[in-house]
Automatic annotation (TrEMBL):
Entry membrane topology: Multi-pass membrane protein
Family the UniProt entry places it in: Belongs to the G-protein coupled receptor 3 family.
Pfam short name (any one): GPR158_179_EC
Keyword Transmembrane helix: no
Identification of the protein by name: GPR158/179 extracellular domain-containing protein
Keywords: Cell membrane, G-protein coupled receptor, Glycoprotein, Membrane, Receptor, Signal, Transducer
One function term, GO molecular function aspect: G protein-coupled receptor activity
Localization of this protein: Cell membrane
Gene3D superfamilies, per the entry: PAS domain (3.30.450.20)
Domain GPR158/179 extracellular per the UniProt entry, residue ranges: 276-379
One GO CC term on file: plasma membrane
Length: 508
């Protein structure tokens, strides 16, 4: 009992010391914008999202940076970690063009039964998700008030040329962890949930009080035609019709015009962009996840089937939306730079002053998606291999961070000198000095007509002269004592070959 009391006292004293100002091993990490968004990310759940105000269900606009813009696609660089957003952008625009053309082409009373029905719209949204695994997490086409004419709801329920108040088939990827058939309890990403956004009394996405449809106000309601010249554009598509396989009715393309999403110029503002992005928001009551939506308008003649052309106009009757989870989008924690503008998470990387930040792709919304490389004039320590990974820095304690993740300064540098040192000049003169032992030796064994540069054939003719001289003679150099420079010493150097006694003749 006494031992237990001692242990509890020690723990209490340690906790009290920590509470009074003691620092933990991770206290060196200062709070930043990532911590702010992470707290808001965790506070909203499926149970309390309905009671949250709109401000707490949305993130700032610049939490998703480098979003693709339609009129800047050919003049801007799309980074590899933004290919998902580019695919989302293109798919939303593709669906908007398709439905705009189909609905306007079949805008006749005789074509009413051939229009896309309930199952077509449901399965089309599902195909967008299953065909883009890892990119698209939600797909929908959502109609405005009384803008959808159901051809599948006619039998004693809705008369011809009647509309539904709201209709919005939407599909999203569902977590099948708790499915009875998933006995491994591992998410397979093969389950898709499909709901009608317009069904139910509390599902009026056209109301301003509805907090979970920020894409609606970007395009609808389109009740006035004051900006039709800016928000609609006339397109022409060439079509060949065929009633039998391998044979067309006409060999020429038939041009069919239709109204579609706006077509901006290079410097146009957001009003004429065909695809608009929402802020990251919480999809309450549906997928219950933080998502980002790319939306594009579906244009149709309203009212439909009217013979009075002057009474109807092209109108944005629906919105094509494509969703992606906010957690799947990479963030750039590096400081503000030329390729990193308007970024809410800029400067959250923890690189030391001797290093600079480089973003890494594929990390999504989490810390550590960067690496710290040495700045010019610094090098990695010999005990560390390569850049310092951000994931290791974010997990380091205070002592580990202070002792590591730092580059060493380059003490000696190889630079081009402005003035040549004296010893280099002497060596250079010596290398080109013609008065060397080699030249004297060659002068003693070669005739005046022979070149000092001995070729292979000439070398064979000289060898008989050099061999006996090398074997029996010994060259002696007499150095002048009063010489002052190397050049004068070489000029006054004289070679006297010595011969064995008894030889009275010798060659000078």
């Amino acid at each position: 009992m006494a031992i237990l009391r001692c242990v509890l006292t020690t723990v209490a004293v340690a906790l009290f010391a920590t509470w009074c100002g003691g620092l933990t091993v991770f206290e060196w990490m200062q709070r930043d914008n990532f911590d702010e968004i992470m707290d808001r990310f965790s506070e909203v759940t499926a149970e309390n999202c309905r009671s949250k105000p709109r401000e707490e269900l949305e993130f700032p606009e610049d939490t998703v940076a480098q979003k693709p813009v339609y009129n800047m696609l050919l003049t801007s660089v799309i980074y590899s970690n933004r290919s998902q957003l580019l695919h989302l952008h293109n798919m939303a625009l593709n669906r908007a063009f398709f439905y705009s053309f189909i609905f306007q082409r079949l805008n006749h009373s005789g074509d009413f039964v051939y229009q896309p029905g309930l199952m077509y719209l449901y399965m089309s949204s599902t195909a967008d998700i299953t065909g883009s695994e890892g990119f698209i997490n939600g797909s929908a086409i959502v109609f405005d008030n009384n803008c959808y004419y159901p051809n599948w709801y006619l039998k004693n329920v809705v008369d011809f040329n009647r509309t539904l108040p709201r209709f919005g088939p939407r599909a999203w990827r569902e977590d099948d962890y708790a499915e009875t058939t998933n006995w491994l309890r591992e998410p397979t990403n093969r389950t898709v949930d499909i709901h009608d956004y317009g069904a139910g009394r509390s599902a009026d996405y056209t109301s301003q009080a509805y907090k979970y449809a920020p894409w609606y106000s970007l395009w609808m309601p389109d009740t006035e035609g004051t900006q039709d010249s800016l928000t609609k554009y006339t397109y022409t598509v060439g079509v060949k019709f065929s009633n039998q396989t391998g044979k067309f009715v006409r060999d020429e393309f038939e041009n069919i015009g239709f109204f579609g999403p706006p077509q901006p110029a290079q410097t146009d503002t957001e009003l004429t962009l065909p695809v608009k992005w929402t802020k990251p928001y919480f999809d309450c009551g549906r997928s219950n996840k933080w998502i980002v939506t790319a939306s594009a308008p579906v244009v149709e003649y309203m009212p439909r089937y009217s013979p009075f052309i002057h009474l109807r106009r092209p109108r944005s009757v629906a919105v094509s939306t494509m969703d992606i989870e906010f957690e799947r989008i990479d963030i750039n924690p590096c400081p503000i730079s030329e390729g990193n503008q308007k970024n809410y998470f800029a400067g959250t990387a923890r690189c030391k002053p001797t290093t600079m930040c480089e973003v890494l792709h594929g990390y999504g919304f989490q810390r550590g998606g960067y690496q710290c490389v040495c700045k010019p004039g610094y090098y990695y320590p010999w005990w560390h291999d390569g850049p310092f990974l951000g994931m290791e820095i974010e997990q380091a304690t205070d002592s580990e961070y202070q002792a590591s993740f730092d580059c060493l300064s380059v003490e000696q540098r190889l630079v081009i000198p402005n003035e040549m040192p004296t010893y280099v000049e002497r060596r250079k003169r010596r290398s080109v000095d013609p008065y060397t032992n080699k030249d004297k030796f060659l002068g003693s064994v070669l005739t005046e007509k022979e070149s000092p540069r001995i070729r292979l054939r000439a070398k064979r003719s000289v060898m008989p002269k050099v061999k006996p001289l090398k074997m029996t003679h010994k060259l002696v150099a007499k150095r002048a004592v009063d010489s002052t420079t190397m050049k004068n010493r070489l000029k006054r150097r004289t070679f006297y070959p010595s011969f064995p006694r008894g030889n009275e003749t010798h060659a000078a």
